Amino acid sequence: MKKSISGIFKEGILTNNPTFVQLLGMCPTLATTTSVVNALGMGAAVIVVLAFSNLLISLLRKIIPKQVRIASYIVIISGFVTAVELIIKAYFPTINKALGLFIPLIVVNCIILARAEAFASKNGPVEAFCDGIATGIGFTLALTCIAFVRELIGTGSLFAAADGSGGVQILGDWYKPASIFLMPTGAFLTLGCLIALVQKIQYTSEDRARRRRIELDAIDGGFHETLMRDPVTGKIVRRPALVEGSAEEVAAPADPEPAEVKQETADEKPQEEKPTEEKPIDEKPMEEKPADAPSDGGEGKEENT
Fold it and tell me: Which residues partner with 169 through β-bridges?
């Protein structure tokens, strides 16, 4: 499966950095990062060697026998290293003096041999050349970051010459340089802290990407609570139930049952019998009139007669 050019550069510089992720080439990383200028010089040499050795190895990958491929890779790499060393000696003598033995040691650099074996021998010339440039840039950026921290804390200045002269004073006279950062101990401390920082950033970005994938799966499956995918445009939009609707509908609680159902339920419910109130019985006996006593009207009639 062929990789795209953008994917090759992203992997070589960020996601699969040779120093912070693969932990390759530790010897020049710790030894040549006492200043930013030395780090840039070492990184430039590695970029040139890595790019052109990958290109030539990719062109000859079908001709070189498998039994002698490692020896053939070393011969090809050593040729480019010798050319780069002669150019540095001729035009940059101070850098050559500062880097010293580490330029010839590029021949056996783990980064160059690893990319030649893992990528250049299995891919085309264009992809191999781009992989060499991307990996070299990633290595150079790692060296520059380490050298930036070590030089700034160790001397208080930046961009000093390869022999230690000059430079731009960043921290004032009040700062007391911590010379331990110019020693091997400082190199290990700086490298460990930067590796931890890069791993933290990479873990955070991967966690965000994982959560985004889970959210997209929920949206596509229709399980998301607030978002959905528009069937016409395909864009992610809010659900209509959350966008439409008046304020009264939102404020008033929804009636779970219609009125007719409620009425039927009320009719079917048996009415409860209310207890009847009993009137108190008057126990006082009624007064009986005597039977012999005539009424007033009768007496009057007899007298008149």
Answer: 157
Task: Evaluate whether residue 113 is within a structural domain.
Answer: yes
- Pull the structure tokens for residue 71: 């020896």
Give yes or no for a contact between 82 and 75, defined as CB atoms under 8 angstroms apart: no
Q: Is the separation of the CB atoms in 130 and 11 below 8 Å? A: no
Question: What does the pLDDT read at residue 215?
Answer: 80
Separation CA 148–CA 160 (nearest Å): 11
> What is the pLDDT at residue 4?
84
**In Å, how far are 99, 173, 204, 213, 233 from 216, measured between CA atoms?**
51, 55, 18, 5, 16
Task: Please report the pLDDT score of residue 224 as a whole number.
Answer: 75
Residues 100 and 38 sit within 8 Å (Cβ to Cβ): no
Burial class (CB in 10 A: 0-12, 13-18, 19+), 74: middle
Beta strands in 108-249 (DSSP E): 157-158, 168-169, 227-229, 236-238
Q: Give how far the C-alpha of residue 292 lies from the chain's centroid of Cα atoms, to the nearest Å.
A: 120
In-domain check, residue 37? yes
pLDDT at 221: 76
Domain count, the chain: 1
Strand partners, 212: none
Contact 151, 158 (CB under 8 A): yes
Cα gap 141→14, rounded to integer Å: 10
Does a structural domain hold residue 19? yes
* pLDDT for res 297: 47
Inside any domain, residue 170: no
Tell me the pTM. 0.70
Give the residue among 98, 120, 105, 123 at the shortest CA–CA distance from 34. Answer: 98
Task: For residue 19, give its domain range.
Answer: 5-165+175-182
- Count of beta carbons in the 10 Å neighbourhood of residue 104: 14
Question: What is the percent of the chain with per-residue pLDDT over 90, rounded to a whole number?
Answer: 32
Tokens found for residue 193 = 């802290």
* Regions of the chain short of the pLDDT cut 50: 243-254, 261, 293, 295-305
